Amino acid sequence: MKYDDPDYHWNNDFPASAAEDNALTHMGFFFAWALSRELVNDFHHEADSAESLERVSQRQMSGREYVIQFCGSRLTDGDFTDRGNAFVQQYYIKRYFSDYCKAFELTHETIYHVEDNWDNADKIASALDERFAKWNQRQRDQQVQLRGPPLSPEPE
């Protein structure tokens, strides 16, 4: 399943004054955050991309650069672990772009003018951490509801 692709952005009100790669900046920020939370699929840790993935972890390469070089300039379900995909399906598709816009719209000409740097990645990472924590709590609450209350010991 494809979650995001620059075509979605280039074909919808993408400003002529922004570099084309800027349609992937938000994807790169999300990918780098997911990597730091161990939500990225194991195949990214293999041969061709392992060194570059480590460079993203060490902040020597941006998430956007990685997404362009190793993810075909898009994010798909193949890029994330099962847990990562569950979060992406609940959050990224429905709310991430809105949170991204809120984080940057007042400080940039458009959201496509956000610079691909680690300061900006950190800015959206704090919102991602908050959303992920809430999502994790809902997952735990649902598991408790499915299991039901603990059984009381038999009276003597």
Beta strand % = under 5%
Question: Judging from the principal axes of the Cα atoms, what is the shape?
Answer: globular
Pick out the low-confidence regions.
none
Distance N to C terminus: 56 Å
Work out the number of β strands. Answer: 2
Number of domains: 1
Report the radius of gyration as a whole number of Å.
18 Å
Widest β-sheet, arrangement of strands: 1-2
Q: Which sequence of SSEs, written as H and E, runs from N to C?
A: EHHHHEHH
* Oligomerization: single chain
Q: Biggest sheet: strands, sense, closure?
A: 2 strands, antiparallel
User: Mean of residue pLDDT?
Assistant: 91
Number of helices: 6
Offer a quick outline of the entry.
It is built from six helices and two strands; from the N terminus they run E-H-H-H-H-E-H-H.
What does this structure look like?
Helices cover 57% and strands 3% of the residues. With 156 residues, it is mostly helical. It has one domain. Strands 1-2 form a two-stranded antiparallel sheet. Helix 2 (25-36) crosses helix 4, helix 2 crosses helix 6 (118-147) and helix 5 packs across helix 6. The protein is globular, with a radius of gyration of 18 Å. The N and C termini lie far apart (56 Å). The model has no long low-confidence stretch (mean pLDDT 91).
